[in-house]
Amino acid sequence: MGLVQTKDQQLFIGVDGGGSKCRATIYCADGTVLGTGVAGRANPLHGLTQTFESIEASTRLALLDAGMNESDSHLLVAGLGLAGVNVPRLYQDVINWQHPFAAMYVTTDLHTACIGAHRGADGAVIITGTGSCGYAHVGDTSLSIGGYGFALGDKGSGAWLGLKAAEHVLLALDGFAVPTRLTDMLLNYFNVTDALGIVENLAGKSSSCYAALARSVLDCASEGDAVATAIVQEGADYISDMARKLFSLNPVRFSMIGGLAEPLQAWLGADVVAKISKTLAPPELGAMYFAQQEFNKSLSVHIGTEAKSCI
């Protein structure tokens, strides 16, 4: 298996996989960072092959960054925090993967983000990046909100902002919606002159392609465009309501993670902003903590079984 049978010597790799990228970091057992690698998206909802390729690619880059060989993945105990594995079928698909690691433990990216944000302590977290979702863990109680993926959910996310902007612009170009700065923004962004040019660039594309428009939507809102403002505020109101629902568990800490976490704060409810605490560690460290915990459990079971066999 390649496992180092002592807790203080085993190397771990924490993987954070989402709709835009996959980041992997190799750690010593004490949390010391040895190397990091970043590859493409790793959300099983958008394809298992892409997910596994991104995990392997980010692992290879992390190994090289750590001064190790690309073939040394068999020395690592992996913790995978992935978007999409809240769907039972996809979770089974991932855990049945013939992975390259010494051992692999899988959970949602929400779970590992929460562990990392509060360094293993109880708390709540909202991810607002390509997608959006919320999670809280207090004592023996957990609450998960959203995480249904684009375009069934992810309201308030980067992908949702881009989608809503594109929907309005296409209606406006056909004369069925009020004018907006978003129209020129989209036409210029794709370097096209009409609605079909926009459609050609977005139809059938991934959530990350829509999320790439989010910053421009936020810029238009900040400049006072009424349509962009309404879109951003609707998304932010949803994120605020999500936070309030998580607060019902009375978490000690609450953090927001993701590319839109900071720019969205200006649009959130004051009561929500007042409770935001600094993220203490990245999701990859949360994935490492999760893997370490599960690995130590397996070691305890293994040692206990060996002890019984000697009686």
UniProtKB/TrEMBL annotation:
Residues 13-263 form the ATPase BadF/BadG/BcrA/BcrD type domain. Gene3D superfamilies: 3.30.420.40. PANTHER family: N-ACETYL-D-GLUCOSAMINE KINASE (PTHR43190:SF3). NCBIfam families: NagK_SO3507. This is BadF/BadG/BcrA/BcrD ATPase family protein. It comes from Shewanella vaxholmensis.
